Amino acid sequence: xxxxxxxxxxxxxxxxxxxxxxxxxxxxxxxxxxxxxxxxxxxxxxxxxxxxxxxxxxxxxxxxxxxxxxxxxxxxxxxxxxxxxxxxxxxxxxxxxxxxxxxxxxxxxxxxxxxxxxxxxxxxxxxxxxxxxxxxxxxxxxxxxxxxxxxxxxxxxxxxxxxxxxx
Length: 167
Fold this sequence. Notes:
The chain is an alpha+beta fold. The protein has helices spanning 20-28, 30-33, 136-144, 146-166; strands spanning 2-6, 9-16, 43-49, 56-62, 68-79, 83-91, 109-119, 122-132. It has a domain at 2-40 and 77-88 and 103-166: START domain (Alpha-D-Glucose-1,6-Bisphosphate, Chain A, domain 4).
């Protein structure tokens, strides 16, 4: 996996030994997402998934010690097997956008663009994510979290790799 900051965006690239259609499928269906998305060791519960432009993915994550937090995606663009664009935010149980539980300085919304390309049965994903409608302080906080986000996505994508090997 490679990870870098480009301006205000975190850019992560990783290769998976699975066909692009399968990689796309595990990003687009609740029964798959619950098996790999989120921090390592957390249990993911799906409250709802409506995978279409204008739709959403609303979920909770629970740590081994019982701490629970909610989040959601709002999908903006979907090109089957090629690209997904969504905005991520922390939420409450009803799906309302709320501040991150770990800091009031974390941006309310992060725009993400996932692209998938296939080469001889392997799929390269590139995930670009950065704050939208953020203050200068929120932008600075986001870029200051680079190492933490790199580790977090590394562990999440390790879970994805392990899951792809089983499905």
